[in-house]
Amino acid sequence: MSRALKAAALAGAALLARRALRRRIARSPLWPLPALETPVSGHSPRRWLPALIVSRTEPADGVMALTLESPELPPWTPGAHVDVRLPSGLIRQYSLCGDPADAGRHTIAIRLVEDGRGGSREAHAQLVEGAELHLRPPRNRFELAPSPSYAFIAGGIGITPILPMLRAATAAGADWTLLYGGRTRASMPFLGELEAYGPRVTIVPQDEAGLPDLSGLARTAPGTLVYCCGPDPLMQAVRAAAPDPSAVHLERFAPSSATGTSRPFTVELHRSGRTIEVAADESALTAVRRELPATPYSCEQGFCGTCQHRVLAGGVDHRDTLLTDGEHEDSMLLCVSRAEDDHLVLDL
Fold first, then answer.
1. How far is residue 31 CA from its own chain's centroid?
2. Residue 8: its pLDDT value, please?
3. Are residues 40 and 292 in contact, defined by beta-carbon separation less than 8 angstroms?
4. What is the pLDDT of residue 297?
5. What is the DSSP letter of 123?
6. Which of 183, 224, 275, 281 has its CA 20 to 30 A from that of 218?
7. Long-range contacts of the stretch 209-218 (C-beta < 8 A, 24+)
8. Statement: residue 229 has pLDDT above 70
9. Would you place residue 37 in the very low, low, confident or very high pLDDT band (cuts 50, 70, 90)?
10. pLDDT of residue 296
11. Phi and psi, residue 182, nearest 5°
12. Long-range contacts formed by 54-62: CB under 8 A, 24+ apart
């Protein structure tokens, strides 16, 4: 064989080997591998999408609404939210509150929380019209199921995932009502938009009328689906007041106060060959990062998925609001979930 043919054959073999390796990596549950820049075990990362902030408005005191545009933004359905990467690298989650029919356009609203963890302060200070923002494709854990009737309940910024549901329910010809509470009328975003729905919407500013009256849930027609987003006490009250708990759908972006008690357990880091103790008053993430400081994390509240890792053995007390039932079978979010018994084995 000539030298040229040998070179061509070697080049062809190398190309086939690279393609085979790429296919193998794509199928691997450990992608991306821990030695790579983003060592997240257990799930495939969704790529970041660039978008331009084309509009910034203030629909209420302390609330800003951003309209983002990009031909890369995919379609979405009512109830969906997106992970947003702030300029500092923090990742935060915001519900999409625009119109799904607006292709290539997403709208989010962010309330300023002065005593929060810093994400909203950074967003209000730095996200201005004309700036570029990066977000992951939408995911929906609050899907609007078909129904002849709905009871929507929102508290404060919890109106954001409900807004597109109202449009969808109206377009479908469903009967629906909205009970919308907030601290003050001035603090409640999108009141002007809601005026178009007339008597279907009941506005309850706490300084004027107290807390929302949930007694009407007991009189809803059979088959009515209840969708609620807001502070945890409101969602717990809705669940307690609804005649059919299976008809209640909740969306939260703060840890539930109804999580179970915590007890200490041990975690075996399978690849590292170490076993660590997790105290009752600390998260598995905190304990793991003592041994493996490079373990990635972001929200620390079970929303973003950055600290998702594979579980090789042991039962998990899942306390997140993100993973699917299938993902719960072999992985956990270290920031909030714990061992069901006394021991877990992680693929770390």
1. 21
2. 57
3. no
4. 79
5. H
6. 183
7. 211/181, 212/153, 212/155, 212/179, 212/180, 212/181, 213/179, 214/153, 214/179, 214/238, 214/241, 215/241, 216/151, 216/177, 216/179, 217/151, 217/241, 217/242, 217/243, 218/243
8. yes
9. very low
10. 83
11. -165, 170
12. 54/129, 55/129, 56/127, 56/128, 56/129, 59/109, 59/189, 59/190, 59/192, 60/186, 60/187, 60/188, 60/189, 60/190, 60/191, 61/184, 61/186, 61/187, 62/111, 62/112, 62/187
pTM of the predicted protein model: 0.73
For residue range 235-270, what is the model confidence (pLDDT) as tens digits? Answer: 999 999 999 989 999 987 655 554 556 899 999 999
Q: Which two tokens stand for residue 192?
A: 């002007």
Element (H, E) at 174: none
Structure tokens at 221: 């027609």
Long-range CB pairs of 199-202 (<8 Å, 24+ gap) are: 200/176, 201/177, 202/177, 202/178
C-alpha–C-alpha distance, residues 68 and 78, integer Å: 17
> What tokens appear for 80 in the block?
């969906």
Place of tokens 């257990």: 42
Write out the two tokens for 51: 């978008």
The end-to-end CA distance of the chain, in Å, is 48
